[in-house]
Amino acid sequence: MIIDQAPGIRWIPVVSIPFTVSITFHFLLALGVVAYFIGEKGFYGHLTLLSWLIIIYPILILFSAALVASWVKKRKYAHFFISLSISIVINLIMVGMADMYSINKQQKLTQVMYENEPQSRALLDPQRPLTIASPLIQKRNAVSPLNIIVYAVDGVLDEKGSIAEVRADAFKNSERWGMGILKSNGELAPDGKRVIYYSTIEFSPPMGWEEALVIIRGSNGEFEFITLYP
User: Fold this and answer.
1) Which residue in 12, 26, 43, 212 is a FRET match for 225, CA 20 to 30 A apart?
2) How high does pLDDT run on average in the chain?
3) Do both 95 and 137 map to the same domain?
4) What is the domain range of residue 187?
């Protein structure tokens, strides 16, 4: 055993000091104290925190080992390197636990977001109420007439009156360049949960147009669009 091979090593401070330092640091990290002092702000604040953590962790590990070496009176170098190794292991475990906690928290937040705003789901998620499946996201070299395919959860679109519009932008009072009626024969999408709608849109954009939107609005406030480019 390691203890038998390292006589004279004071194992209590060698283990307890790195553990205490690591626990204290990660507690302050969880409370947001570290982020506050670093100045984590704005959309890219998490990247700032991450870059600082890359610097802080080695310093934290060295500090723990140096603290142990200063605590003991004999075999300081042995205590330093043993506590250095232990500190690395402890912090790796803490980082792994923090990562698992972060992933779990993010999954819960994402689930709440999906429940409050189902339209925020991935485009081809079968639980997304409304998706323009073809063209997907955008269409370059767009010309009239434009054929589109839409997937919608039953009840989101009115089979008799839902329309797809081509507008200059997303505002309701913006100029409408064309429209088409969305029709369905009851065919289901490949996901087996949404209904397929088809439409052929005739549109007349002005000369020199740079982009336009195909917009579909659902009965429950859903908003779906793709971008057209000439």
Assistant:
1) 43
2) 85
3) no
4) 130-228
